[in-house]
Design a protein that fits this description.
Blueprint: H1 9-27, E1 29-31, E2 37-39, H2 41-52, H3 54-71, H4 78-96, H5 105-108, H6 112-141, H7 144-149, H8 151-176
Antiparallel strand pairs: 1-2
Helix pairs in contact: 1-2, 1-3, 2-3, 2-4, 2-8, 3-4, 4-6, 6-8
């Protein structure tokens, strides 16, 4: 069944709520380096990808992270975050759940199969995010050395996100019966 799905009002409301939650999760942070931080935004993004799929996580990551940058004074990073986090959410969601929330558990695994898919999905998203932000930091600061200096914070944020998502994602998915 190859049916095209479009966003409806319910989807837009979900994306709006998830975007605001992504912004809030990103505010829970510890500054580290120049323009970098260890925060819970990635944990939220990875978890929502596992639970709701690529469209919701991608849009929520793009909008929520971009809005965070605008709201908190990181405006040079807004467009970068929009693209980087949007694609990261899409990567996790598609690999762990599917494109849409309605993807069935049988087609995308359950139990240990879900854990393995979610683990590798988070790793791929973390690598994408790291590469994207190295370019962003280099462009915004004008210093490749500064960009490389922010790698530890990116890895710590993604590592924390991976751990939280692998604990919460499958449990929330089962709880919501998605």
């Amino acid at each position: 069944m190859n049916r095209k799905r479009k966003l409806d009002v319910r989807d837009i409301v979900f994306v709006g709520v998830l975007s605001s939650m992504c912004t809030i999760a990103t505010t829970i942070k510890i500054p580290f380096g120049v323009g970098a931080m260890v925060h819970l935004g990635s944990a939220f993004l990875y978890t929502m990808g596992i639970v709701f799929g690529g469209v919701y996580a991608g849009l929520a990551g793009a909008i929520g992270s971009g809005f965070y940058d605008l709201l908190m004074g990181f405006s040079p990073y807004t467009l970068w975050s929009f693209v980087i986090k949007g694609i990261a959410g899409l990567i996790v969601g598609v690999a762990a759940k599917g494109l849409w929330p309605e993807a069935t558990a049988s087609s995308y695994g359950a139990g240990s199969k879900l854990f393995v898919r979610a683990f590798f999905a988070c790793i791929l998203a973390a690598l994408w995010t790291l590469c994207g932000y190295i370019l962003a930091w280099w462009y915004v600061t004008g210093s490749f050395a500064t960009a490389l200096g922010n790698i530890p914070s990116s890895l710590m944020t993604s590592g924390a996100g991976l751990i939280v998502a692998l604990i919460l994602g499958p449990k929330l998915r089962k709880l919501l019966r998605r």
